[in-house]
Amino acid sequence: MSSTTTTDPVITSGSASAPADQREAFYGLLPRLLADDDRLVVVLAAVGAGYLDVPEELAGRVVDVGIREQLLVSTAGGLALTGLRPVVHTFPPFLVERPFEQVKLDLGHQGVGAVLVSAGGSYGWPAGGATHFGPRDVALLDTLDGWTVHAPGHPAEVEPLLRRAVAGDDRVYLRLDPTSNARPADVTDDRWRVVREGGCGLVVAVGPVLDRVLAATEGLDVAVLHAVTVRPVDAAALRAAAHVPEVVLVEPWLRGTSSHLVAEALRDRPLRLLALGVDRAEHRAYGEVADHDRLHGLDVAGLRRSVQGFVAAQR
User: Fold this and answer.
1) What angle do CA 145, 146, 152 make, to 5 degrees?
2) pLDDT tens digits for 115-138?
3) Could you tell me the residue range of the domain that residue 262 belongs to?
4) Dist CA 143 CA 165 (whole Å)
5) Cβ contacts of residue 214 below 8 Å, gap of 6+?
6) Are the C-beta atoms of residues 42 and 21 closer than 8 Å to each other?
7) What is the value of pTM for the model shown?
8) How far is it, in rounded angstroms, from Cα 65 to Cα 193?
9) pLDDT category of residue 18 using cuts at 50, 70 and 90
10) Are the C-beta atoms of residues 97 and 153 closer than 8 Å to each other?
C-alpha cells in the first residue's frame, strides 16, 4: 500500500446551510474566509483539492504542493514568515506524523503560526488502511509547545472554531472527525462543560464521542464533562467537576493521550484514572468505522462495560 494517495474518499453532498459532515463544512467555509481576509492562504497536498470550489479571483491564494507533505508544512512556515496566515489541510498522518520535523522547526522553532486542519480522524476512511489512520496526532503535538487543539463534535462547530483560529497568529490544530454528535456544543469559548450530573465518578468525553458516552452511561450515577478545545486543558472545569477520585477519560485518538494532563490538573487530589481511546496494538483491519469503534471499545456497548466496571470496582 502506498504511504500517500491522490484519491479522496467520497463526500456526501449536503445543503450550504446544513453540511453533511465536518469536512464538508470546512470546504464550504474556506472560500468565504479567503474573501474576508487578505492574509489567508490555503495550502494543500492534493487531498481536498477536488472538493474546494474557490472563485477565480481567489484561486491564487490556494497552493497545492502535490503529494509532498514535508513541503506542505515548510511552505506554510515560509508563508507565515511573510505575514500571511496559512490554513494547511490533509489527513492526520500526512499533516502531523510524516512532516513532524517541519511542524517542529518550520513552525515552532521559527516562532510562526498556522492553522492545521485534518480530516479523517483516527480511522475515518477505513478503505485507506493504516497509512491513512491518524490516532497519534495529538500525542505528537503534545511534545511541542504552544499548540491549541480543537476537536469539534458537530459540523456546526467548525465555523466558529475555524474563524477564531484564522483570526490569530498562533499555532492551532483543528481535528475534523467523520462522526458527529446529534447537536452542536457551545464553542463560544474554550471551557469544558458539564452535560450530566452524577456522584460516583466523572467521565470526560472529548469532541465527537459525547453522544456515545451519554448513551453508554445512561442510568449510571456518573457526571459527564464535554471538552471540545482540549489544548489547553480546562483545569478549572475539570477540578470543579471531579468530586470523587474516579475519572474516566474518553478520547477519539490514542488511548491515554491526555492522561498526564488530567493527572497534572488533579495532582493534589486522590485519583483513579481510566483512559479509553484507540488501542496502541496493530490490528491490521479495514471494515467500516463502526467496526473500528467496536474493536477499540469505543462503541456504546464497549464504553458501558468499561465505565460500569471501573465505577463498580471502587464500591
Assistant:
1) 120
2) 999 999 999 999 999 999 999 999
3) 193-313
4) 21
5) 195, 196, 205, 224
6) no
7) 0.93
8) 40
9) low
10) no
